[in-house]
Specification:
The chain is built from 19 helices and 25 strands.
Length: 592
């Protein structure tokens, strides 16, 4: 109940490894570690008391024994009511501490007065040595506090308190103090030194070098941003995390492994600012949990009369309103965060998530494409699909005579419904809602997110039949934009063509000779050199206006324009189809 589990646990802990903290998977005993914490925190709590002279703590491990020494001192007097020496009472009686008055403001770790006595109970040997500058008290307990020596009292002026205990390793299913638990105890002394820069802390004779909490954070990560409020004794560090949310937090020098209200208090402020930033700057709404996953938070806090979820004090449950003050993360720290790697890691994650979502969507779509029955498809019947071509027409009327003049083995047709979609900035989830897009992909055998392999496609060529007017040019460009965005290899393999159709057809009235004109300039030049009365001149508004023989020519003897790409293809398509209208305006000015 009080020291936590006394069984071996598998889990991850931070350990010092060559001057850097590393998150390691280890087997450890939580209850065993709690014993050390209870003893050393007595010294830390004494350091925080007003008027104390305690400023040095020495931790020593000799074989299997653990010793904690400080230059304080417990009064070596007998309790007036119980007639027992005060040091003996503190370490051998439950509820004999001095932290029970909730009306008194406490910033120490002790709360229930049971910790030190529990260490005695879980020890084969437990030694008390203390001097209050007048008298020196010494007493030894054995066999889980069942046996004890009579206290010896001697005159002395050297202030100190030293507790030495030999844990009952058998109760913890341990054979002795192994390297893992040795390093965990050492790490705990580093924690305490970082949280209390006013104390000199030694571990096995060596001074623990953590001058500030900022120095301590540097053991974990580089590039952290840090701020301190010395008045409230709150110290905050924040860095980017690539391993999901991580936190290292302390309340009154006690490590809160599971975080708690102090962590949520600071974290929520930072996340709130980041959400607003991403909404305004990047037009994306990110869930708080998604931002949290990219943060490594460090907290060293002081809270008056803290409440924990259990005696093991792994999670703070004090409500924010009971902190006794408000703490606002500074605007300066927020600005630093917004310019930091934290934002970059979140942006990278957003991009990866979009790709992952798109890939998942593509996989689901591709499974269903083969099941789609394309109503507007006139399929070619030939078995050699590389020789087959699919003709794209603007609506049913443009393809009305196609069946009459096509070669059934070679020619297939798909009729578009007006203008095609602008796929430049379209996401996959929106793209697949377009039925025409899905039908065309199914007809061609194209798969979203997969390379267009000529050997696997249902047609070897794509022929775009659009009217020779501005609408026709627009539809043609939109199709090219769509195909290039998802399958640029179609152009590399020379599979995309535009079929040029006449805008003017002139027929000699005597010889019946026909001349097709494919642009206005060419027609105007011809017209200036002939006698117009000798010719029948007809403007062809669209494919539906072509005569039967003219239509037969564009099907069986098409005038093909191969669509090719170069290094500027992406930039050019982005200019004409991207969101930035200013780019288009500049290009139009060049054409004037």
């Amino acid at each position: 109940m009080y020291v936590g589990s006394i069984k071996m646990n598998d889990g991850h802990k931070w350990l010092l490894n060559e001057d850097k903290m590393s998150f390691q998977e280890i087997t450890f005993n939580p209850g065993f570690l709690k014993l050390f914490d209870e003893i050393i925190m007595n010294s830390v709590d004494e350091f925080k008391r007003e008027g104390t002279k305690l400023n040095t703590i020495k931790v020593s491990i000799n074989e299997d024994k653990v010793s904690v020494w400080d230059n304080g001192g417990i009064p070596v007097v007998k309790h007036p009511e119980h007639n027992e020496w005060i040091p003996e009472m503190i370490f051998s009686n439950l509820k004999a501490g001095s932290n029970f008055n909730d009306d008194e403001e406490r910033t120490g770790s002790g709360t229930n007065g049971v910790g030190s006595s529990l260490v005695n109970i879980f020890s084969k040997e437990f030694t008390i040595s203390t001097c209050d500058s007048k008298n020196h008290f010494h007493q030894i307990f054995y066999n889980n506090m069942r046996e004890r020596t009579e206290p010896t009292i001697e005159k002395s002026k050297k202030n100190h308190t030293e507790i030495t205990y030999l844990p009952d390793y058998e109760k913890f299913k341990m054979e002795g103090l192994d390297e893992t638990h040795f390093n965990l105890i050492k790490k705990r002394t580093i924690d305490i030194a970082a949280c209390n820069p006013g104390i000199k802390i030694y571990f096995n004779g060596e001074l623990v070098n953590s001058k500030t909490f900022a120095d301590y954070i540097n053991l974990y990560t580089e590039g952290a941003f840090f701020e301190s409020n010395k008045e409230k004794n709150w110290h905050i560090g924040i860095a980017a995390s690539n391993e999901g949310f991580r936190q290292v937090s302390f309340v009154n020098s006690t490590e809160t492994y599971d975080g708690g209200s102090h962590v949520d208090y600071v974290l929520n402020q930072i996340i709130s600012e980041l959400r607003v930033f991403f909404q305004k700057k990047h037009k994306v709404d990110i869930k708080p949990s998604e931002i949290k996953n990219h943060i490594f938070l460090f907290l060293n806090t002081t809270i008056i009369n803290p409440s924990f979820s259990s005696q093991t004090k792994e999670k703070l449950i004090t409500e924010v309103k009971d902190f006794g003050f408000t703490y606002e993360v500074s605007a300066k720290l927020i600005k630093e965060i917004l310019k930091s790697e934290i934002v970059e890691t979140i942006l990278d994650w957003i991009a990866r998530k979009k790709d992952a979502d798109a890939n998942k969507l593509a996989r689901e779509l591709n499974k269903n494409l083969s099941k789609i029955k394309v109503d507007k498809l006139i399929d070619a019947k030939g078995k050699n699909r590389r020789e087959c071509c699919i003709c794209l027409f603007e609506g049913d009327s443009a393809a009305s005579a196609f069946r009459t003049y096509r070669d059934p083995d070679l020619h297939g047709a798909f009729c578009l419904r007006g203008k095609f979609v602008n796929a430049m900035d379209m996401t996959n989830d929106k793209l697949i809602l377009n039925k025409e897009v899905l039908n065309f992909m199914a007809a061609m055998g194209l798969r979203l997110g997969e390379e267009a392999d000529p050997e696997k496609l249902r047609y070897g060529k794509i022929l775009i039949f659009t009217d020779a007017d501005f609408d026709g040019y627009s539809i043609n460009a939109l199709l090219i934009n769509f195909l290039y965005k998802y399958w640029p290899e179609l152009f590399i393999n020379q599979m995309v063509y535009r079929v040029e159709t006449p805008i003017v057809v002139s027929q000699n009235l005597k010889s019946k000779k026909k001349i097709n004109f494919y642009n206005q300039e060419e027609y105007n030049q011809w017209l200036s050199n002939i006698n117009a009365k000798e010719w029948s001149i007809k403007y062809k508004k669209g494919l539906a206006a072509l005569s039967n023989d003219e239509y037969e020519d564009i099907i069986l003897k098409p005038r093909l324009m191969l669509i090719t790409t170069d290094e500027s293809a992406s930039q050019s398509l982005n200019t004409w189809f991207g969101k930035d209208s200013e780019l288009r305006k500049l290009e139009l000015l060049k054409l004037q």
